Amino acid sequence: MFSWGMISTFSAFVNSFSSLIAIRLLLGLFEAGLFPGMLLYQTLFYNKRQISLRTAYFYATSAVAGAIGGLTSYGIGFMDNNGAGTAGWRAWRWIFLIIGIPTVLSAFFVPIVLPNSIETATFLTEEERRLLRIMRDNEIGITASSKELHKEDVMAGVKDWKVYAWSLAQFCGHAVLYSFSVFLPTIIRGMGTWNNAEVQALTVPVYTVGVIVYLTAARLSDRLQKRAVFCFAGGSLMIVGYALLIAHQSVAMSYAGCFVVAAGLWMSTGTSMAWLNVNNPRYGKRAYASGMLITVGNSAGVASPFLFSDKHKPGYRPGYAATIGMLAFALCLHVTLYLSLKRANARKLSGQEDWRMEGKTEEEIADLGEDNPRYLYTL
């Protein structure tokens, strides 16, 4: 986090295209482990009944950052002084500096704030530690062995088609996340005659709606113990939102479309992350699955800038159409995963998987993870 913050801060001093490419590659190198690491880290403390909301608290910060970034950019935008800049610097340089420095400073608090385990969390009482251990250890599939990294578990993840189905769905969702986050100001600017500062200000309510809807959906997801339905709802909302944008009958309709996209974006992609994690009780497979999900998902950042070409503005119909196509594909993948997990649960409940327990001790049965006939997938 410290290195990431330093590189981001010193992006303000870039003075050539080659130095920009170099510093962006370094930024990606140091940033890469944070997100999958945090997803995996949360599963060390929370059980499958609690993970959606905790994932939402973390993942929703990207939407919060979008809102704060919009406000910050609105303020910093005035430092451009019609191209003259402030203290010899254009506004875009100040953005890197002002946003990068807090990242560097906050890195020093991470070792103090984040414990390595339940046992080393100094802010917990002994009773709270005991309760957390009970909630984690009483889950079917959670054993002492399941909490450790085993090559067999990693290879089980490598061979599981479901990991790649979730990852491809996340690619489609992240293509929207990256293109929407990057091009939202461009989309809004194309709706009217606002200046740059006003455009940045108009992005804030959009991100705010995304955060509120996602946190509400995550709380409901944990309470109802349902994941797929929120992936379906989020994907469908995004398709409707982009349909409103592609129709572009009025400024009000297009701006409303941005809100609808935001309402579905974080709900769908965030719930999908939690859905993958809760259905992988063994640490090794969960670690591989989380890493693959983010690797494939984040690679959408390569494709997303090409979705909205200047030659197609202000309608951007090809970009919107391609996005709708990807969202429909992600929806099909989520439906396929849901039906597959539902079928697997039905087989277990009907006793068709009981043969896996034959000749095994209770400890060996518990160590089967998701192959345990008593373990039911969360739908």
Give a brief rundown of this model.
The protein is an all-alpha fold and 379 residues long. The protein has 17 helices and no strands. The chain has helices spanning 2-10, 17-31, 34-42, 51-59, 61-77, 91-107, 110-113, 126-137, 151-159, 161-189, 196-224, 228-247, 251-278, 283-298, 300-303, 317-349, 362-366.
Query: What is the share of helical residues?
Result: 55-70%
Task: Report, as a whole number of angstroms, the end-to-end distance.
Answer: 34 Å
Second rung of CATH, namely the architecture of the domain at 32-68 and 150-371: Up-down Bundle
| Outline | globular
Helical element count? 17
Structural class: mainly alpha
Please summarize the sheet with the most strands.
Answer: none
The stretches of 5 or more residues where confidence is low (pLDDT under 50) are none
**What top-tier CATH class of the domain at 32-68 and 150-371 fits best?**
Mainly Alpha
Mean pLDDT level: 86
Number of strands: 0
Q: Beta-strand level of the residues, as a percent range?
A: under 5%
Query: Could you give the order of the helices and strands?
Result: HHHHHHHHHHHHHHHHH
Using only CA atoms, what is the Rg? 23 Å
CATH fold-level assignment of the domain at 32-68 and 150-371: Growth Hormone, Chain: A
**CATH H-level superfamily of the domain at 32-68 and 150-371:** MFS general substrate transporter like domains
Please render the helix and strand layout as text:
Elements: H1 2-10, H2 17-31, H3 34-42, H4 51-59, H5 61-77, H6 91-107, H7 110-113, H8 126-137, H9 151-159, H10 161-189, H11 196-224, H12 228-247, H13 251-278, H14 283-298, H15 300-303, H16 317-349, H17 362-366
Helix pairs in contact: 1-2, 1-6, 3-14, 4-11, 4-13, 5-6, 5-11, 9-14, 10-11, 10-13, 10-14, 10-16, 11-13, 12-13, 12-16
